[in-house]
Amino acid sequence: MTVDPPPPQVWPTVRARDARKLIRFLVDAFGFEEVMVSAEGDLVHHAQLRWPPGGGIMLGSVRDDPEDRWPLQPGTFGGYVVTDDPDALCTRAIAAGAELVQELRDTDYGSREFLVRDPEGNRWSFGTYRGEPYRS
Known about the structure:
- It holds the Pfam family Glyoxalase.
- This protein is an alpha/beta fold.
- The protein is built from two helices and eight strands, in the order E-H-E-E-E-E-H-E-E-E.
């Protein structure tokens, strides 16, 4: 019997100076899938990207408004994403323009991973480590 995992209930969020460009980069470089974009011209109010194995992120344009209730600054996000093939993903990301911060390496906790920065300066770590199993 196969049990479908529940839909994501935690969504990391990112703000970007050029949200449309960042969306395109995250799709081309990392393999995220664009689910929806609510925008007016260059201003992205809300976008949702899916990570095909599960989960996703939400993002939008940074607002230069002192009344902004979500004042995250571009380039301050950091995320870890599980992948079964970090070697191929690293090659793809670098070819698409990701800045390599840390080469592929095998960690002492059993992961193979690398670290890159997107055009907005956010840091992304991709690796095989899936976290520790839940304890009952």
